[in-house]
Design goal:
362 residues, binds zinc ion, mainly beta, 18 strands, eleven-stranded antiparallel β-sheet
Length: 362
């Protein structure tokens, strides 16, 4: 997901010698003068204000500081020689950066009470305004929620539900298949008792059919109805008319005492979703012919204007009386197959339950 930079903020560090809090970019402790240690961990200020000063913002954007390979002094990104010893900084190690520190603290922080004199101080100051004591330990710890992605959530339960239904369906299917497989086919001798046929012709008629679809998918010749904007897709890059949806801003350590405030964003592209009408052939009626002989016929069709014949269907049924006095039924859609079963003729049948699987003339 693309990141959007909102700006830069100053981080803080706590002096390991005296416990005082110091502004992130400051390389030595205000209180005791001790240098910022090499393994210093920058923290978010209680109240983070985006840097407005252009020059300072440029410094913040420059990147992580570089440790001098000779004396260990930290130098700003882009420096060629160490400001302390003059050593060549090529090969110097850049400070670790890119760590997410927490949600951007844009709101005002609660005032803090001085541990020494009890005076109330704004959370942004490092020392008590009344007595000068360090306020390092009193900084209120704000909850730092993990940055939330902008992507919509809540699809998981639905997916799980679908999964369960699918598994049940597969189990049911396998169960039925197993039952069928375990019912053995048996051989029975049978005589054709009766035959029956049904032939059907569908009648179709031109009619208006309404559909919905994206505007660019509406077929030519369709009558366009009303359209409304609907979410078409979500993408990483901005586009004209796209809706920008961003997650909670959060602060990322720049390795220089500054933090970058970023937001993960995505872009929702909306397109016209339309209903439209097309003229198309639709099932309207059907004509049927039936009989109880071996001479099936198609029903006669009388079409009105704007009508045509649709699909044809043929179903044939043969009923046998087995030598076990039970009745068995054979079904087919093939007229030539059906024509073999003369009433009264004798057959060797393979049956499953009451259905005939195959038949061979005796
Ligand atoms: Zn100190
Ligand atoms: Zn150096
Ligand atoms: Zn005080």
């Amino acid at each position: 997901m693309p990141q959007k930079t909102l700006g830069y903020v100053q981080l803080e560090w706590t002096c390991p010698s005296c416990g005082s809090r110091n502004p992130g970019p400051q390389k030595a402790c205000t209180n005791c003068g001790a240098p910022q240690p090499q393994d210093v961990e920058f923290e978010q200020a209680a109240e983070e204000t985006l840097i407005a000063d252009q020059a300072q913002a440029a410094r913040a954007a420059a990147g992580p500081d570089i440790h001098c390979p000779y004396c260990g002094t930290r130098n700003p990104a882009g420096a060629q020689r160490c400001k302390q010893c003059g050593g060549d900084l090529v090969g110097g190690q850049a400070r670790a950066s890119g760590q997410v520190l927490g949600a951007h603290r844009s709101g005002p922080a609660q005032p803090v009470a001085c541990p020494a004199c009890g005076a109330s101080n704004p959370a942004t100051v490092f020392n008590c305004g009344q007595c000068g004591a360090s306020l390092a330990e009193t900084r209120p710890s704000q909850p730092a929620p993990q940055p939330s992605a902008a992507a919509p959530q809540g699809k998981k339960p639905l997916l799980i539900g679908c999964g369960i239904v699918l598994v049940l369906a597969i189990c049911a299917f396998l169960g039925l298949a197993a039952l069928g497989a375990f019912t053995p086919a048996k051989d029975v001798a049978g005589r054709v008792r009766s035959v029956a046929w049904t032939r059907t012709i569908a009648i179709e008629q031109l009619a208006d059919a309404r559909y919905d679809g994206w505007r660019d998918e509406v077929p030519s010749g369709a009558r366009l109805g009303s359209c409304s904007k609907k979410l078409h897709h979500t993408q990483d890059s901005p586009a004209p008319g796209a809706e920008e949806v961003c997650g909670t801003p959060y602060t990322v350590d720049q390795g220089s005492g500054y933090g970058k405030v970023v937001q993960d964003c995505e872009y929702r592209v909306y397109e016209d979703w339309c209903n439209y009408t097309v003229r198309e052939w639709r099932a309207f009626d059907e004509v049927k012919a039936t009989g109880a002989n071996l001479n099936p016929e198609w029903p006669s069709v009388r079409l009105s204007t704007g009508q045509r014949e649709g699909e044809r269907e043929e179903d044939y049924q043969v009923v046998f009386l087995g030598n076990d006095d039970k009745q068995y039924t054979y079904q087919t859609n093939n007229a030539a197959d059906f024509a073999r079963f003369v009433v009264g003729s004798n057959w060797e049948l393979k049956v499953k339950g009451s259905s005939v699987v195959s038949a061979q003339k005796q």
